[in-house]
């Protein structure tokens, strides 16, 4: 059962904005990553010739490069989330703490 302080925090518009904006942003990034990953998996499953195509005269294929793109995209999206969390979300949290205290 929520205490009076917990209820006051949960009913606070700034808290609700923080939760709503953080959730929306996290789900958006998760959807983007899922889309990138699914596109890669579908290419692996259905575009064998494309994924096996060699780049230049070396042994590197398009599939290897696209696999690296998936990994780099995960790092970039994580960095984007951390940047937003350290900026906007932390500012909203500080505002909420000041208002509640």
TrEMBL record:
Coiled coil: none annotated. The keyword NADP does not apply. It comes from the Bacteria. InterPro entries: DUF485, Inner_membrane_assoc. The chain crosses the membrane at residues 25-47, 59-82. Keywords: Membrane, Transmembrane, Transmembrane helix. GO terms for cellular component: plasma membrane. It comes from Roseicella frigidaeris. This is DUF485 domain-containing protein. It holds the Pfam family DUF485. The keyword NADP does not apply.
């Amino acid at each position: 059962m929520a205490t009076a302080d917990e209820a006051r925090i949960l009913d606070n518009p700034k808290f609700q904005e923080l939760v709503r904006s953080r959730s929306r942003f996290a789900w958006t990034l998760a959807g983007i990553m899922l889309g990138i990953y699914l596109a890669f998996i579908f290419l692996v499953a259905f575009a064998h010739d494309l994924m096996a195509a060699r780049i230049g005269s070396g042994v590197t294929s398009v599939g290897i490069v696209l696999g690296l793109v998936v990994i780099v995209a995960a790092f970039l999206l994580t960095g984007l989330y951390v940047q937003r969390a350290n900026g906007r979300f932390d500012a909203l949290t500080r505002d909420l703490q000041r208002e509640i205290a």
